[in-house]
Amino acid sequence: xxxxxxxxxxxxxxxxxxxxxxxxxxxxxxxxxxxxxxxxxxxxxxxxxxxxxxxxxxxxxxxxxxxxxxxxxxxxxxxxxxxxxxxxxxxxxxxxxxxxxxxxxxxxxxxxxxxxxxxxxxxxxxxxxxxxxxxxxxxxxxxxxxxxxxxxxxxxxxxxxxxxxxxxxxxxxxxxxxxxxxxxxxxxxxxxxxxxxxxxxxxxxxxxxxxxxxxxxxxxxxxxxxxxxxxxxxxxxxxxxxxxxxxxxxxxxxxxxxxxxxxxxxxxxxxxxxxxxxxxxxxxxxxxxxxxxxxxxxxxxxxxxxxxxxxxxxxxxxxxxxxxxxxxxxxxxxxxxxxxxxxxxxxxxxxxxxxxxxxxxxxxxxxxxxxxxxxxxxxxxxxxxxxxxxxxxxxxxxxxxxxxxxxxxxxxxxxxxxxxxxxxxxxxxxxxxxxxxxxxxxxxxxxxxxxxxxxxxxxxxx
Length: 462
What we know:
With 462 residues, this protein is of the alpha+beta class.
């Protein structure tokens, strides 16, 4: 081995060892408190900069919205910025941005989050604003109509008028699962969005936007006592409300491969999406699966990129992972897929891609990952996890999600150590058990003929 390569290898090993030690050492500080109205608040004290990040997550996401109300979880992400009877539309942004901060929101499968970051001097105004819109919104019909149009335009831009139309995120779960919560279009059907009346919106808000259905996390230049006192001041008087029970998310075991073909009027080259059902999130297998997803998909050194793009030349792009598209492989609370999205040359067929793809899986079963590749991916995932907790706003998000989904903020400190302990044999066993043909769903998305009038779907077995 050349000297420079040996030096590089030793440096990588030392770096990985440092990450592994860190996984058992440094912990994110977190103190939590549950208020009488059910609101849970987590505080992570960090005086490295005079700023704070705040995340309030509500237990309502794509898969939790009721039938006939598809798209409501996402619609409400937008409605929460339409103002309140006390703070009209635009006040929220003016106050936060005027104080040197910023805010945003995001909808996932199992929660909707609202995030704010600002100098610590703005903590009290931000808490007041968040409490104000939790009490009530300005339910004017024109606000609903405005945001309905915004959401529908988002669908047109990201799905209807975009090559591939997020079929690996929308159509794939729709064919992989049978129950409505897991299989419906998370953006929502236009018929449901168009049928919504203002009283439907008010009812949705009262059902899901309640203090007893929320977790707030604040990270940064604060103390727990300070935050808890301010939360009591602004949120303490908000009464809890009845929250609908979660729907049944269980799925019958999959016993046969599901395959279908779709035509795409906008795509110029074909693509394939492959999704494997994953084990329950709270199992150790789920942690192994998260790591396997990165082994297969993370960058140009990944197993699939090397085999399909570099070696066999049956693909031009490979993306994927566990809980692909929405969040990271640890932040979900129901069935999820390890998914691959692969664009391949137009002179090939889907089976050409699948042959090379299955060879990667077979090799992973028979030989397992090399210790070096497993160590590299494990170290990168741990490093990324720690990096995602550096900025106060990102740390607040992770703490809020962990507490909402796992019942404790301590989960953020457990993940690096669990990743560090995954072995090559566990990866091999996981692949043999879960990445099987009978446990997967495949969609082949091909360009529509030039004379085609749109999109059609030849459905496979469900």
